[in-house]
Amino acid sequence: MPLQTIMRRHLREGLPMNPLESTRFGEACSPNSAPTPCATCGSRVAGICAALDMAGLEEISHETRRTAVHPRDVLYHEGDSAQSVVMLMRGVAKLTRQLPDGRQQVLGFRFAGDILGFTTRRSFASDAEMLTEGQVCRISRRDFEGMLARFPATQRRLIELCSQELAETQEQLVTVGRRQAEQRVAAFLITLAEAARRRGLRHDVLDMPMTRAEIGDLLGLALETVSRAFTQLKKRGFVKEPGGHKVELPDIPALAALAEGDLE
C-alpha cells in the first residue's frame, strides 16, 4: 500500500502510524510523571524515549546533555567523528550534504523526537543545521548503545523508527522520480501533516520554517516551480497561507489524493 494512502487513512481515522505508538507507552511515559528535563521532550511522544518508563527516563537523563539551540546552529558537520547521537527535543532541523561542485543538497527535515547522527559509520554522512529555536539532547554513542542493551523496548522502538524513515525515503524517491511539480509539493505537505499528527500537534495548520528554495532542493524543483505549485494549490483551495510561516490545509484527504494522482 502506498505511503500516501496509509497517511490519508491514519489522518482521517486518527489511527497511530506505528504499533509502538500504543496506549501502554502513553501510560508508561505520561508527561506528568516524567523527570523534569524530559517533561516537554518530543522524543517521549514520537521518538525512542516513548519506549521508556519513568525509571528508565530518570536513568537515561543522567547520561545525556541538553542544550538550547538557535536558527542556523550546526549540530554536526559531514565528516565529523560520529561519537554522539543527537535527539531533537523541540524545533526543526535540516540535513544537507555538500556536493563536489560546492552546492548544498537538502536531504530532509527533522522534527521534535527525531534521532540525528546515529550511524554505523565512523563519521557523520551529512550536516545537521537548525532552522528554528529549539533544544537538543546529546548522548554518547557508547551510552546510546548501552541504553539499547539495557532497555529492549528501545530496540523495538528504534526498529520502528528506522522502518518509518525507510518508508519515507522510498516515498521520496517516488515523489522525485514520478510525480509532477504540484503533486510533489502536495506529497511534501502531507508528509509534514503526518509528522505533526504523530507528535500530537495540529496537522491542518503547519509551521513552515523551511524556505521554498529548501523545499525545491529536497523535491528536485526550481524555486520558481515551487512558488507556482503553491500558487496553484491555493487557487484550487488545497492550501491557505495565513502568514507567520504557516500553511493551512483545509482538506487533507483531497490533498493526499492529489499527491497520489487520484485527482487531476
Keywords for this entry:
single chain; 264 residues; alpha+beta; four-stranded antiparallel β-sheet; Cyclic nucleotide-binding domain-containing protein; transcription regulation; HTH_CRP; WH_DNA-bd_sf
Can you give me a brief rundown of this structure?
One of its GO terms (molecular function) is DNA binding. The chain is an alpha+beta fold and 264 residues long.
Biggest sheet: strand arrangement: 1-8-3-6
Under CATH, the topology of one domain is which?
A: Arc Repressor Mutant, subunit A
Summarize the main sheet: 4 strands, antiparallel
Radius of gyration: 18 Å
Per CATH, the superfamily of one domain is Winged helix-like DNA-binding domain superfamily/Winged helix DNA-binding domain
- As a percent range, the share of strand residues is 15-25%
What is the CATH C-level name of one domain? Mainly Alpha
What is the tally of helical segments? 10
Helical content, roughly? 40-55%
Average predicted local confidence, pLDDT = 86
CATH architecture of one domain: Orthogonal Bundle
Global outline: globular
Tally of extended strands? 10
Low-confidence stretches: 10-32
Summing up helix and strand content along with how strands pair, one would put the structural category as alpha+beta
The ordered string of helix (H) and strand (E) elements is HHHHEEEEEEEEHHHEHHEH
